[in-house]
TrEMBL record, chain A:
Region (Disordered) residue spans: 1-51
Localization, UniProt: Endoplasmic reticulum membrane
Superkingdom, taxonomy of origin: Eukaryota
Keyword presence, Transit peptide: no
Protein name, as recorded: ER membrane protein complex subunit 4
Chief place of localization: endoplasmic reticulum
Automatic annotation (TrEMBL), chain B:
The keyword Endoplasmic reticulum appears for this protein: yes
CC terms in the record's Gene Ontology section: EMC complex
Keywords per UniProt: Endoplasmic reticulum, Glycoprotein, Membrane, Signal, Transmembrane, Transmembrane helix
Assembly with partners or alone: Component of the ER membrane protein complex (EMC).
UniProt-listed GO biological process terms: protein folding in endoplasmic reticulum
InterPro entries with a match to the protein in the record: Beta-prop_EMC1_1st, EMC1, EMC1_C, Quinoprotein_ADH-like_sf, WD40/YVTN_repeat-like_dom_sf
Record organism: Rhynchospora pubera
First-listed, main subcellular location of the protein, grouped into a coarse class: endoplasmic reticulum
Record keyword Endoplasmic reticulum present: yes
Transmembrane domains' residue ranges: 947-970
Family: Belongs to the EMC1 family.
Pfam family, one: Beta-prop_EMC1_N
Protein name stated in the entry: ER membrane protein complex subunit 1
Length: 176, 980
């Protein structure tokens, strides 16, 4: 995801830079014909933009589906970790919880490079969110099977202090 | 991944390993052990010219010990059983110590230098009574020497070499009581003198080698004879008559007996009252103690008697000491205020008088033993071993106390804990800090060397020494962890000692009863001690204090007294002789405005007297009076009774006196049950939670109440020792009784079981120990009590919202529905005492502290006594720490709290919390004292002393350096990257 984003941006930046930042006062190098790209600006650029939009949409779907693989992997890891509470299973479970949460938090950023007026990002975004929520649920389920969710009465009374007693009786065997 | 899984599991296992032990070099870090001998009753000096000078003593605690005369250190010591009281000790052949014990039925020989037992002979005496031992000096059958044991009318001669009974003579005359045996020098005949029915004097001549009766004669006495005699020469003795006002001089020359009556008033001018003969073995001199004075009397010629010396009545007279053929010495010791004067009289004449100042907390002189040594100028020097009222032992020589031993600490009867003063702010100089820092660093460098195995033996010794003399643990101030405290103990003699938990030293000691002694309080004795004021938030500025309760006489109706003593200094803050008797002291869970704890003193007429006397205390009590109850266990009547308090008492109109009203009684059928043990929870025990969580996440609510009394009864036939009843005649019934309402909450019968029963109650469980006659083994049973009336509180939503009745105050009058879970296990040892660890907040798991028959303290995890144990626990149960059920409780050698030490004649174990939740103090006492700190679930809340701070420091420094280096390297690399 990270890599894809960076590449897309560089490509886009380069493209706009070369068109806007060239100084008209500086002479073109010998053999360079500026008129050439300007020629098919209208038809060629639209075509290109279409292709780009299609590419973006495709990429966005790919990104949206990425958590599925993660989900499978997590499932496998959880199965391996077993149902006892120890360092390994705890680590797996917490990473399984943390990954969807962090992904959900950065859901805007993930789809930013594919922002395009022609591309409808809502569907991939929803899929992405749904898959991550699925991951979160899986993590929660694991947490529950480990017994770490306060779903039992015992989790709420484990540190309940003893109730006060009203009466007090003292005594014993008298001294002889 | 599988490997990691396994590793994780192993880690978990290692964390939950059950054994608790310390390394050898940790011995003495937190623990201390003090050895005592008890109140000395006999002493025999062994002061030959070569070798160590020593004194062999026997004590009221049934201990025999050899003490170094120079230092008072114990060279060796043996503690005989509880029923094996030492009657007499003697030396034989110059190398054996003979002890006659168990009312003259067991004779033992101990090797003098090292205390090994050489032989033991059971004399098979049918009616043990006043026996005495006589070591014959010069009967030599081969290289052997004989010891005679006389009991009633029989004499046994025992070989000193191997303890075999050489001959036995039963004189078989009814009512004969042998009084004296002697053997003239260079003779093979033994003379035995006895009284028959206090009217006849009998003399027997016995062959010393064979025991053959050679001759005997009897003669009627002119007066009724009492049992006191004093042998004054080889052919005469003096006896007192039953009226204790006449002396009878008995002579038995050449097989005939003559007796001559001498009224004491003829000899001692102002004689009146009852006289007492002080047993001596001396040359024509005997000592009579009368109420007004001590008289030294010499027998001259046939029936002439002369008073040769007098001493005033308070004097304590030692046994006689033979200096030479003609010379006999006595020591007379007087005590006044805080000085002792020792007077040595040779043949009744004053030879030496020495005065010594001693601490006034030792009380009066009780016994004195005299010994002499020969000075370089051939004159006699004297040393005296003095037993004081507080049971301490002093050696006096040349006008000073050479050494003293606080042997009163061998008879601790009660103990409480008090805090030390708070450390003053400021006052620590920079130099001191630097010095300690340097020391600290040095110490840790040494420790690091130790852990890295680089240290030399010298370093090792230095580490050990450092451990032991660590000043931190011996400070007289409170510490953050609560490791330093004062243990305040009361001994049988009524002396109160404050011991420091750091090293067991005596911070202060006071014998308070002499302060009270007066006409209104003739013989004060202290019964018990309690915490009187424990400074808490409100009254932190006040010193903590303790309450001592006692009574002025012996009977239960004699008046009581109270002392309030400052815990820091031992200063008496308040003394009060009460106008009522004391049958029981009940500490209440209430305190007045100055944090003085409220106590009710119950007198023999069942009135309750409130202390402290103050209007706010009264107000506090009256407000709570309706909820206060008293119960009384009457062991003799097999009854437990419960009482409520009411205003106005039967004996007076004091506002602080309350009457009682009987509410309930539990009467045990006396033909089938007899109370043998009761136990209740400690009043100050803290319980962390009321919920017990099962493996399946289910909750059980503990039935936690302070008002629960465990009572064990056995069948009357089985009330004796083990073996006295057949299994069918023996049963043990365990009761759990609510002491407010008298309701029997639970009752269980163990068929074929009998006492002794030892029980401990804590939180919601009882553990008790008894003997199973059918299995021929000791057994331990645990009963856990759960509250069924709260069991419905299982709705999570209600609990989340706080809609439950779990924190509502509970009353015993609402009908408790309890469920019990119980399990029994075999246990290898018999038990002398049982206790449970207590921690500050009650979170740490519990250990049961068991005083074993070997006088050690064993810490047994409560997890072994868990009714949920099954033979094949499921995986979840195993994870929770449930141990597979076995029929026997394991005894893991590492879990002996006392490691290699023994607490002779262990009588009590006490556990009190430190401020650190993980740690608890354990103090066990018997003849010896042993103190240590244990952490039942390991020290999870602090670093141990063994933690290497230097290693940590080095690691941190290395890590910082590594970070800096890698940071610099990455900077450099970045720059290069950019230049590329």
């Amino acid at each position: 995801m990270e890599k894809g984003k960076a590449m897309a941006r560089r490509w886009a930046v380069d493209f706009s830079d070369s068109s806007s930042s060239s100084h008209p006062t500086v002479a073109d190098p010998p053999g360079f014909a500026r008129s050439a790209p300007d020629l098919d600006e209208t038809s060629g650029s639209r075509q290109k933009k279409d292709a780009e939009a299609a590419w973006k949409a495709q990429k966005a779907w790919e990104v949206a589906q990425a958590p599925f693989k993660n989900l499978l992997m997590m499932g496998f890891m959880m199965w391996m970790a077993g149902n006892t509470v120890h360092l390994f299973s705890m680590g797996i479970t917490f990473s399984a919880l943390w990954q969807p949460i962090s992904a959900l938090r950065s859901v805007g950023k993930v789809f930013e490079p594919y922002k395009d007026p022609k591309v409808d990002l809502n569907a991939p975004r929803l899929l992405f969110i749904a898959l991550n929520l699925g991951g979160l649920l899986l993590g929660m389920w694991k947490l529950n099977t480990l017994g770490l969710l306060p779903t039992h009465a015992s989790d709420w009374v484990f540190s309940l202090p003893p109730a006060k007693e009203v009466e007090f009786a003292g005594g014993g065997s008298p001294f002889y | 991944m599988e490997a990691r899984f396994l590793l994780g599991f192993l880690l978990l296992l290692s964390l939950s390993s059950f054994a608790f032990a310390i390394y050898e070099d940790q011995v003495g870090l937190a623990d201390w052990h003090k050895r005592y001998i008890g109140k000395v009753k006999h002493a025999v000096f062994h002061t030959q010219k070569t070798g160590r000078r020593r004194v062999v003593v026997s004590t009221e605690e049934n201990a025999i010990a050899s003490l170094d005369l120079r230092t008072g250190d114990i060279l060796w010591r043996h503690v005989l059983g509880k029923n094996d009281a030492v009657d007499q000790i003697g030396l034989s052949l110059g190398k054996y110590v003979l002890t006659l014990s168990s009312q003259g039925s067991v004779l033992r020989a101990w090797n003098l230098p090292d205390g090994q037992m050489v032989w033991e002979t059971d004399l098979q005496i049918s009616n043990p009574s006043n026996s005495f031992l006589h070591v014959l000096g010069n009967v030599k059958s081969g290289r052997d020497s004989l010891s005679l044991v006389c009991n009633g009318g029989s004499i046994r001669a025992v070989s000193s070499i191997d303890g075999l009974v050489v001959w036995k003579k039963d004189l078989s005359i009814d009512g004969l009581k042998l009084k004296h045996v002697f053997q003239p020098p260079e003779s093979d005949t033994i003379y035995a003198i006895g009284f028959i029915d206090s009217s006849l004097i009998a003399l027997y001549h016995i062959n010393a080698k064979t025991g053959e009766l050679l001759k005997h004669a009897t003669q009627a006495s002119s007066v009724d004879l009492s049992s006191e005699i004093s042998a004054i020469s080889s052919d005469s003795l003096v006896a007192l008559d039953t009226s204790r006002s006449n002396l009878l001089l008995i002579k038995f020359m050449a097989g005939t007996i003559t007796n001559h009556k001498l009224p004491l008033s003829d000899i001692v001018q102002d004689f009146s009252g009852l006289a007492e003969l002080i047993p001596t073995k001396s040359n024509d001199i005997f000592v009579v103690k009368t109420p007004s004075n001590v008289a030294f009397i010499k027998v001259k010629g046939d029936n002439e008697i002369e008073l040769i010396g007098k001493a005033d009545e308070a004097g304590i007279v030692s046994d006689s000491l033979t200096l030479s053929e003609e010379e006999q010495a006595f020591a007379v010791v007087h005590h006044s205020n805080n000085a002792i004067s020792l007077q040595v009289r040779i043949n009744g004449r004053e030879a030496l008088t020495e005065g010594i100042k001693i601490e006034d907390h030792r009380g009066h002189v009780k016994r004195v033993f005299l010994n002499n040594y020969v000075r370089t100028d051939k004159s006699h020097g004297f040393r005296a071993l003095i037993v004081m009222e507080d049971e301490s032992l002093l050696l006096m020589q040349q006008g000073e106390v050479v050494w003293s031993r606080e042997d009163g600490l061998a008879s601790i009867s009660d103990a409480v804990v008090a805090e030390l003063p708070v450390e003053k702010e400021g006052g620590v100089s920079v130099v001191e800090v630097e010095h300690t820092l340097l020391e600290w660093l040095k110490g840790h460098m040494l420790k690091l060397k130790g852990t890295l195995m680089l240290s030399t033996p010298d370093d090792m010794a230095a580490i050990q020494a450092m451990h032991l003399k660590s000043t931190e643990r011996n400070k007289m101030t409170r510490d953050h962890n609560g490791f330093r405290k004062l243990i305040i103990v009361l001994t049988r003699s009524g002396k109160v000692y404050a011991l420091h938990t750091g090293d067991g030293r005596i911070v202060w000691a006071h014998l308070l009863t002499p302060l009270l002694q007066s006409e209104s309080c003739p013989s004060p004795s202290v019964l018990t001690l309690r915490n009187w004021r424990v400074p808490h938030r409100k009254a932190l500025q006040e010193n903590p204090s303790i309450l001592l309760v006692g009574r002025c006489g012996a009977g239960p109706e004699s008046h009581g007294f109270l002392f309030i003593v400052d815990s820091y200094s031992g200063k008496v803050l308040e003394t009060q002789i009460l106008d009522h008797s004391i049958a029981e002291v009940v500490p209440l869970p209430l305190a007045d405005s100055s944090e003085q704890k409220l106590h009710l003193v119950i007198d023999d007429k069942l009135n309750a007297h409130l202390y402290p006397r103050g209007s706010d205390a009264l107000e506090v009590f009256v407000r709570e009076m309706a909820n206060m109850y008293y119960y009384k266990v009457e062991n003799a009547k097999e009854v437990i009774k419960g009482y409520a308090f009411k205003k106005g008492c039967s004996t007076g109109s004091s506002a602080y006196c309350f009457g009682t009203r009987e509410l309930w009684s539990v009467v045990f059928p006396s033909d089938s049950e007899r109370i043998v043990a009761t136990a209740r929870r400690k009043i100050n025990e803290v319980v962390h939670t009321q919920a017990k969580i099962m493996t399946n996440q289910d909750v059980m609510y503990k039935y936690i109440t302070k008002n629960i009394l465990f009572v064990a009864t056995v069948s009357p036939k089985a009330a004796g020792g083990i073996g006295s009843a057949a299994p069918d005649d023996a049963w043990l019934v365990a009761y759990l009784i609510d002491t407010v309402t008298g309701r029997i909450l639970h009752r269980v019968t163990h068929q074929g079981a009998q006492g002794p029963v030892h029980a401990v109650v804590s939180e919601n469980w009882v553990v008790y120990h008894y003997f199973n006659l059918r299995a021929h083994r000791y057994e331990m049973t645990v009963i856990e009590i759960y509250d069924q009336s709260r069991a419905d509180n299982k709705d999570v939503m209600k609990l989340v919202l706080g809609k439950h009745n779990l924190t509502a105050p509970i009353t015993s009058y609402s009908r408790p529905e309890i469920a019990t879970k119980s399990q029994s296990y075999f246990f290898t040892h018999s038990v002398k005492a049982i206790a449970v660890t207590t921690t500050a907040r009650g979170i740490t798991s519990k250990q049961i502290l068991i005083g074993t028959i070997g006088d050690q303290v064993l810490a047994l995890d409560k997890r072994y006594l868990d009714p949920r144990r099954t033979a094949n626990p499921s995986q979840e149960e195993k994870e929770e720490g449930i141990i597979p059920l076995t029929d026997t409780l394991p005894i893991i050698p590492q879990s002996y709290v006392t490691h290699t030490r023994q607490v002779g004649d262990l009588r009590g174990i006490m556990s009190f919390p430190a401020n650190l939740e993980s740690t608890t103090h354990v103090f066990s006492y018997g003849i010896d004292l042993f103190y240590t700190r244990i952490a039942p679930s390991r020290t999870y809340d602090s670093l141990t002393d063994e933690f290497s701070y230097v290693l940590l420091l080095i690691t941190v420094v290395v890590l910082i350096v590594a970070i800096l280096v890698t940071w610099a390297m990455s900077q450099k690399k970045d720059l290069q990257e950019k230049w590329r």
